[in-house]
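dumping the sequnces here before i forget
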Amino acid sequence: DAGVIQSPRHEVTEMGQEVTLRCKPISGHNSLFWYRQTMMRGLELLIYFNNNVPIDDSGMPEDRFSAKMPNASFSTLKIQPSEPRDSAVYFCASSPGGVTFGTQYFGPGTRLLVL
Amino acid sequence: AQSVTQPDIHITVSEGASLELRCNYSYGATPYLFWYVQSPGQGLQLLLKYFSGDTLVQGIKGFEAEFKRSQSSFNLRKPSVHWSDAAEYFCAVGAEGGATNKLIFGTGTLLAVQP
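..and the predicted 3d for all of it:
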Protein backbone atom coordinates (compact mmCIF):
# COMPACT_ATOMS: atom_id res chain seq x y z
CA ASP A 1 0.00 0.00 0.00
CA ALA A 2 1.44 3.37 -1.02
CA GLY A 3 -0.14 5.24 1.87
CA VAL A 4 -1.60 8.71 1.57
CA ILE A 5 -0.01 10.59 -1.31
CA GLN A 6 0.31 14.36 -1.34
CA SER A 7 1.59 16.66 -4.04
CA PRO A 8 3.50 18.80 -4.33
CA ARG A 9 5.79 18.15 -1.38
CA HIS A 10 7.05 21.72 -1.46
CA GLU A 11 5.50 24.84 -2.91
CA VAL A 12 6.90 28.35 -3.00
CA THR A 13 4.66 31.04 -4.41
CA GLU A 14 4.11 34.74 -4.31
CA MET A 15 1.36 36.51 -2.47
CA GLY A 16 -1.80 36.71 -4.52
CA GLN A 17 -1.20 33.55 -6.49
CA GLU A 18 -3.50 30.56 -6.48
CA VAL A 19 -2.21 27.44 -4.76
CA THR A 20 -3.65 23.95 -5.21
CA LEU A 21 -2.66 21.08 -2.95
CA ARG A 22 -3.54 17.53 -3.90
CA CYS A 23 -4.22 14.37 -1.95
CA LYS A 24 -4.81 10.75 -2.84
CA PRO A 25 -6.15 8.81 0.16
CA ILE A 26 -5.54 5.15 0.87
CA SER A 27 -7.73 2.99 -1.31
CA GLY A 28 -10.89 1.91 0.49
CA HIS A 29 -10.78 4.68 3.07
CA ASN A 30 -14.00 6.68 3.24
CA SER A 31 -12.92 9.59 5.41
CA LEU A 32 -10.47 12.31 4.42
CA PHE A 33 -9.07 15.15 6.49
CA TRP A 34 -7.09 18.28 5.70
CA TYR A 35 -4.91 19.71 8.47
CA ARG A 36 -2.65 22.72 8.72
CA GLN A 37 0.41 22.80 11.00
CA THR A 38 2.21 25.94 12.10
CA MET A 39 4.49 26.76 15.00
CA MET A 40 2.04 29.31 16.35
CA ARG A 41 -1.21 27.37 16.08
CA GLY A 42 -0.07 23.75 16.08
CA LEU A 43 -2.11 21.18 14.17
CA GLU A 44 -5.51 22.41 13.05
CA LEU A 45 -8.25 20.48 11.30
CA LEU A 46 -9.42 22.46 8.28
CA ILE A 47 -12.07 20.21 6.76
CA TYR A 48 -13.30 16.65 6.93
CA PHE A 49 -15.00 14.58 4.21
CA ASN A 50 -16.94 11.37 4.60
CA ASN A 51 -17.85 9.46 1.44
CA ASN A 52 -16.72 12.47 -0.61
CA VAL A 53 -19.14 14.80 1.21
CA PRO A 54 -17.81 17.66 3.36
CA ILE A 55 -18.97 17.02 6.92
CA ASP A 56 -17.23 19.69 8.92
CA ASP A 57 -15.51 22.73 7.41
CA SER A 58 -15.57 24.85 10.54
CA GLY A 59 -11.80 24.96 10.56
CA MET A 60 -11.44 26.54 7.12
CA PRO A 61 -9.93 29.93 7.92
CA GLU A 62 -11.78 32.07 5.41
CA ASP A 63 -13.30 32.22 1.98
CA ARG A 64 -9.91 32.15 0.34
CA PHE A 65 -9.73 28.47 1.23
CA SER A 66 -11.78 25.82 -0.55
CA ALA A 67 -11.64 22.04 -0.67
CA LYS A 68 -13.18 19.49 -2.97
CA MET A 69 -13.38 15.73 -3.18
CA PRO A 70 -14.75 14.85 -6.61
CA ASN A 71 -14.27 11.12 -6.07
CA ALA A 72 -13.08 8.64 -3.49
CA SER A 73 -9.48 8.74 -4.66
CA PHE A 74 -8.74 12.45 -4.96
CA SER A 75 -9.09 15.68 -3.03
CA THR A 76 -7.80 19.21 -3.47
CA LEU A 77 -7.28 22.14 -1.13
CA LYS A 78 -7.14 25.47 -2.90
CA ILE A 79 -6.03 28.85 -1.61
CA GLN A 80 -6.93 31.85 -3.74
CA PRO A 81 -5.46 34.39 -3.33
CA SER A 82 -2.61 33.18 -1.14
CA GLU A 83 -1.11 35.32 1.63
CA PRO A 84 2.17 35.04 3.59
CA ARG A 85 0.24 33.97 6.71
CA ASP A 86 -0.88 30.86 4.83
CA SER A 87 2.68 29.53 4.99
CA ALA A 88 2.49 26.21 6.79
CA VAL A 89 2.67 22.47 6.36
CA TYR A 90 -0.59 21.06 5.06
CA PHE A 91 -1.38 17.44 5.82
CA CYS A 92 -3.94 15.16 4.33
CA ALA A 93 -5.08 12.09 6.26
CA SER A 94 -7.50 9.28 5.50
CA SER A 95 -9.37 6.82 7.66
CA PRO A 96 -11.52 3.75 7.13
CA GLY A 97 -15.19 4.59 6.98
CA GLY A 98 -17.85 3.11 9.21
CA VAL A 99 -15.51 2.94 12.16
CA THR A 100 -15.82 5.59 14.83
CA PHE A 101 -12.43 7.16 15.35
CA GLY A 102 -10.71 4.80 13.03
CA THR A 103 -7.00 5.33 12.78
CA GLN A 104 -6.08 8.34 10.68
CA TYR A 105 -3.20 7.76 8.29
CA PHE A 106 -1.28 10.90 7.45
CA GLY A 107 0.47 11.84 4.26
CA PRO A 108 3.97 13.37 4.29
CA GLY A 109 2.59 16.89 3.98
CA THR A 110 3.03 19.82 1.63
CA ARG A 111 5.30 22.61 2.82
CA LEU A 112 3.89 25.89 1.54
CA LEU A 113 5.81 29.13 1.58
CA VAL A 114 4.03 32.27 0.41
CA LEU A 115 6.38 35.17 -0.19
CA ALA B 1 -15.88 21.49 24.45
CA GLN B 2 -13.18 18.90 24.22
CA SER B 3 -9.59 19.98 24.67
CA VAL B 4 -6.14 18.51 25.14
CA THR B 5 -3.22 19.94 27.09
CA GLN B 6 0.37 18.85 26.77
CA PRO B 7 2.16 20.87 29.44
CA ASP B 8 5.68 20.08 28.30
CA ILE B 9 6.75 21.80 25.10
CA HIS B 10 10.21 20.29 25.06
CA ILE B 11 11.81 17.39 26.94
CA THR B 12 15.35 16.07 26.83
CA VAL B 13 16.25 12.60 28.09
CA SER B 14 19.35 10.47 27.91
CA GLU B 15 19.37 7.39 25.77
CA GLY B 16 18.37 4.40 27.86
CA ALA B 17 16.48 6.49 30.39
CA SER B 18 12.77 6.16 30.99
CA LEU B 19 10.29 8.59 29.48
CA GLU B 20 6.92 9.95 30.44
CA LEU B 21 5.07 12.51 28.35
CA ARG B 22 2.08 14.16 29.95
CA CYS B 23 -1.35 14.65 28.45
CA ASN B 24 -4.47 16.02 30.11
CA TYR B 25 -7.85 16.17 28.43
CA SER B 26 -11.17 17.82 28.98
CA TYR B 27 -14.20 15.77 28.00
CA GLY B 28 -17.65 15.14 29.41
CA ALA B 29 -17.84 11.41 28.83
CA THR B 30 -15.45 8.54 28.31
CA PRO B 31 -12.98 9.89 25.82
CA TYR B 32 -11.35 8.35 22.82
CA LEU B 33 -7.64 9.08 23.31
CA PHE B 34 -4.69 8.82 20.96
CA TRP B 35 -0.95 9.35 20.85
CA TYR B 36 0.72 10.18 17.54
CA VAL B 37 4.41 10.65 16.72
CA GLN B 38 5.85 12.94 14.07
CA SER B 39 9.43 12.48 12.91
CA PRO B 40 11.12 15.46 11.25
CA GLY B 41 9.71 16.14 7.80
CA GLN B 42 7.15 13.38 8.12
CA GLY B 43 3.44 13.04 8.72
CA LEU B 44 1.96 11.79 11.97
CA GLN B 45 1.93 8.11 12.83
CA LEU B 46 -0.38 6.50 15.36
CA LEU B 47 1.44 5.06 18.40
CA LEU B 48 -1.57 3.83 20.35
CA LYS B 49 -5.18 4.55 21.18
CA TYR B 50 -7.64 4.04 24.03
CA PHE B 51 -11.34 3.50 23.49
CA SER B 52 -12.44 1.45 26.50
CA GLY B 53 -11.46 -1.52 28.63
CA ASP B 54 -8.01 -1.99 30.06
CA THR B 55 -6.66 1.38 31.09
CA LEU B 56 -3.07 0.44 30.22
CA VAL B 57 -2.65 0.45 26.46
CA GLN B 58 0.28 -0.98 24.57
CA GLY B 59 1.44 0.57 21.34
CA ILE B 60 4.10 0.30 18.73
CA LYS B 61 7.83 0.89 19.27
CA GLY B 62 7.62 -0.17 22.92
CA PHE B 63 5.36 2.70 24.03
CA GLU B 64 2.47 2.40 26.45
CA ALA B 65 -0.04 4.83 27.90
CA GLU B 66 -2.29 4.74 30.93
CA PHE B 67 -5.76 6.24 31.07
CA LYS B 68 -6.55 7.73 34.47
CA ARG B 69 -10.08 9.05 34.61
CA SER B 70 -9.66 10.59 38.06
CA GLN B 71 -6.79 12.71 36.80
CA SER B 72 -8.12 13.26 33.26
CA SER B 73 -4.77 12.08 32.03
CA PHE B 74 -3.39 9.82 29.34
CA ASN B 75 0.38 9.88 29.82
CA LEU B 76 2.73 8.17 27.40
CA ARG B 77 5.59 6.09 28.74
CA LYS B 78 8.57 4.13 27.55
CA PRO B 79 10.95 2.31 29.90
CA SER B 80 14.11 2.84 27.84
CA VAL B 81 14.41 5.53 25.19
CA HIS B 82 16.36 5.01 21.97
CA TRP B 83 17.95 7.77 19.92
CA SER B 84 15.45 7.04 17.15
CA ASP B 85 12.61 8.11 19.47
CA ALA B 86 13.60 11.75 19.02
CA ALA B 87 10.50 13.29 17.48
CA GLU B 88 7.43 15.33 18.31
CA TYR B 89 4.62 13.60 20.14
CA PHE B 90 0.98 14.61 19.96
CA CYS B 91 -1.87 13.59 22.21
CA ALA B 92 -5.38 13.78 20.75
CA VAL B 93 -8.96 13.30 21.90
CA GLY B 94 -11.88 12.23 19.75
CA ALA B 95 -14.61 14.85 19.50
CA GLU B 96 -18.23 13.84 19.56
CA GLY B 97 -20.88 15.36 17.36
CA GLY B 98 -21.63 15.34 13.67
CA ALA B 99 -17.98 14.87 12.73
CA THR B 100 -17.62 11.64 14.64
CA ASN B 101 -14.06 11.09 13.46
CA LYS B 102 -12.79 14.52 14.36
CA LEU B 103 -9.69 14.64 16.55
CA ILE B 104 -8.55 17.51 18.74
CA PHE B 105 -4.76 17.58 18.97
CA GLY B 106 -2.58 18.96 21.72
CA THR B 107 0.24 21.35 20.92
CA GLY B 108 2.84 18.59 20.99
CA THR B 109 5.93 17.73 23.01
CA LEU B 110 9.28 17.77 21.28
CA LEU B 111 11.53 15.00 22.55
CA ALA B 112 15.30 15.24 22.28
CA VAL B 113 17.49 12.24 23.13
CA GLN B 114 21.02 12.75 24.41
CA PRO B 115 23.64 10.07 23.72
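Chain B has a mean pLDDT of 90.
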